[in-house]
Write a structure and sequence with these properties.
Layout: H1 4-14, E1 18-22, H2 26-39, E2 42-47, H3 49-55, H4 57-71, E3 81-89, H5 92-100, E4 105-108, H6 115-132, E5 137-141, E6 151-152, H7 169-179, E7 183-185, E8 194-195, H8 205-215, E9 219-221, H9 229-238, E10 240-245, H10 247-263, H11 270-292
Parallel strand pairs: 1-2, 1-10, 2-3, 3-4, 4-5, 5-7, 6-8, 9-10
Helix pairs in contact: 2-11, 5-6, 7-8, 8-9, 10-11
GO molecular function: aldehyde-lyase activity; zinc ion binding
Active site: 87
Binding site for Zn(2+) 2: 109, 141
């Protein structure tokens, strides 16, 4: 049986990270599947509360299961497989619903809450999720890093990128021990979304290493879009096990769709337009998966 925790342990041994890609439609899912199959890698499909409402909670699970049945090997330790994560879940009932639907992981996001309240609410989420699905992993989030996959003119108000606002290793240790989470998403200088005319803020690699040493749990880097390649490499070496990418894919979707419509203004058949859109997203996804898995650039 393929489980996310077993796969994360192998990734840690390999010193690589699993790519986590948010989807909000079939084309995004197909792009992820195409690349994961081509590179023969396990990946995580992420769906936020809004994306789950749009697509349907059980439908997402069913789609992943259908691809795994067709292309995956349930007895393999590594290789193509789709895991499903209930990304950025703020509502306890929705966390429980995702667990009931058979999701592999649930992120309960209390990052905007005061520290002690974040602990208490996350603890409730762990109990609810584990009560419904013993195999599901629960991820907790510490520190506010923005909430939206947008292209920003300026930093989201309140985002924790100053040294004083980053997740502290001692707080991370307390949080993990008090809540019982399986994974942790700390604030280490990362921020959701991308900036229009500049790279995203630099990641605090030293802090990642300190948090990893203090907690010993898999660490998740949110807001991966726009981060420098060298920061990704260093972050994975320091202890990051999962990297989230969303805005880069959404931007590729939008720009390629605009180009396809402009190039064929009279075309009304989606299956004539969408292959170019899927290919554009594939290029982004493949670039990231190669980087996260130390595969090098395609020759």
């Amino acid at each position: 049986m393929r489980t996310l925790i077993k796969t994360l342990k192998i990734a840690e041994e390999k010193k690589v990270a699993l790519g986590h890609f948010n989807i909000a439609g079939f084309e995004q899912l197909q792009a992820v599947v195409n690349v994961a199959r081509r590179l023969d890698l396990p990946v995580i499909i992420g769906v936020s509360e809004g994306e789950r409402e749009y697509l349907g909670v059980r439908r997402v699970r069913d789609l992943a299961d259908s691809y795994n049945a067709e292309y995956g090997n349930p007895n393999a330790k590594w290789g193509f497989w789709l895991f499903v994560n209930a990304d950025h879940t703020h509502d306890l009932q929705k966390a429980e619903n995702a667990a009931s639907a058979g999701f592999d992981a649930v992120l309960f996001d209390g990052g905007k809450l005061p520290f002690e309240e974040d602990i208490e609410e996350t603890k409730k989420a762990v109990a609810l999720v584990k009560g419904k699905n013993k195999h599901a992993l629960v991820e907790g989030e510490m520190g506010y890093i923005g909430t939206s996959s947008e292209v920003w003119d300026k930093l989201p108000e309140g985002a924790a990128i100053e040294e004083k606002d980053l997740t502290k290793s001692e707080d991370a240790k307390k949080f993990v021990e008090a809540t019982g989470v399986d994974m942790l998403a700390p604030a280490v200088g990362n921020v959701h979304g991308m900036f229009k005319n500049a790279s995203n803020p630099r990641i605090n690699i030293k802090r990642i290493g300190e948090i990893k040493k203090a907690t010993g749990v898999p660490l998740v880097l949110h807001g991966g879009s726009g981060i420098e390649d060298e920061d990704f490499i260093s972050a994975i070496e320091a202890g990051i096990n999962i990297v989230h990418i969303s805005t880069e894919i959404r931007r590729a979707w939008r720009e390629s769709l605009d180009a396809a419509l402009k190039g064929e203004p009279d075309e009304v058949a989606p299956y004539h337009l969408m292959p170019k859109v899927i290919e554009a997203m594939e290029r982004v996804i493949e670039d990231r998966l190669r980087l996260f898995n130390k595969l090098g650039n395609e020759s």
